[in-house]
């Protein structure tokens, strides 16, 4: 069971990405759990999901959906932007605290309904990244953040009520103590943190103390979760959060990756969110089996499966659609040609920070994406994007279709092919490459790009190695996003269909 940051799927599946895994916040008496995820350089920010069983999730909105809340300038780097949302419910309101890197700092927004609308932000100038919120019996808000520092804050004004202090260093010798979460359980305060960095050394450790500010004693069995030096299919596990379900059971959500291919293993979907059961032994949380098939949990409560095809017939875009850094009103429209998404070009290519782009996160290792595109007034098409310098696209315009690949400083253009006048169906498919001990450099997947003939035949213009659209090659924190773009003139899209190929759990 996985979840990546943005889009929606019935098996808690969205990439995530994301880097951070906030706690699914349970609202007592209503039987619902809510989950917020990082969105990095994409707008709108912080997708919010709802579930009744911690397995089946549906996206109900985005917490930061207005420029008064989130204004990412073109200088925002890929894998910059919105980090580490933590979602909490206190005194009748939901509180979401997150950071905007590297420009703005840390903010809190609130709402009585997690579907929104959310308030404009209150900024916390004395708080660093990976912020957490907890309240003591007196109602004082304690904010703990990366480096495992802590400060009491006035959430109405954002002002610190004291000087921030370091409260725990984590495991001696472990790098990057971060992502703290603080809980009071039966009179004892528990401090959960991530350690070891977000790659192969990632892990989760815990300490406990008599008060929100400690002193804290570490668990003798730390790290309580890490898959380092194992052959488990889920790696880089860390950045966890705890939730107590309505039936009294405990669970942990945490980040991990599913690398594919040969050495060193490439993951292309970003850091996903997983869940595992938790029991308590001698006053410490013990994490149970990490099962990708989610064969345990609360009584199942399935949610409606989003349609594979979006015909752009609504008055606004669905909440799963995201854009790079911003989505200015002049760059897109659902009204210019009703029933079509119209994109007006802003910058010259997908290399540029303000490209006109509307996409959704790749949710499966194997998928097929198709769109009916009218590029008679410009150039654009379908793209698989990891960041500004790593993307593949199939592009129509000027009566031709071609494939472009950007890999760092290198650019590859496959010679264009003429196509008949009128709209054309562009198509991208990803297929995982099976692991083979005879090929240590086996790619994680292949990406096929091309178009369909009027009879539906897939004409593959190019087949590209998927490792170059992976975190191990490009760096950063996010996974792929697949979507529509325009780089000159006006390009229109009648529909887009995203479908998993084969087993939807892959």
UniProtKB/TrEMBL annotation:
Residues 309-499 form the Beta-xylosidase C-terminal Concanavalin A-like domain. The record marks 130 as: Important for catalytic activity, responsible for pKa modulation of the active site Glu and correct orientation of both the proton donor and substrate. Gene3D superfamilies: 2.60.120.200, Glycosyl hydrolase domain, family 43. GO terms for biological process: carbohydrate metabolic process. It comes from the Bacteria. CDD domains: GH43_XynB-like. GO terms for molecular function: hydrolase activity, hydrolyzing O-glycosyl compounds. Keywords: Glycosidase, Hydrolase. The keyword Lyase does not apply. The keyword Hydrolase applies. Residues 1-25 are annotated as: Disordered. Pfam families: GH43_C2 (PF17851), Glyco_hydro_43 (PF04616). Belongs to the glycosyl hydrolase 43 family. This is Glycoside hydrolase 43 family protein. It comes from Phytohabitans flavus.
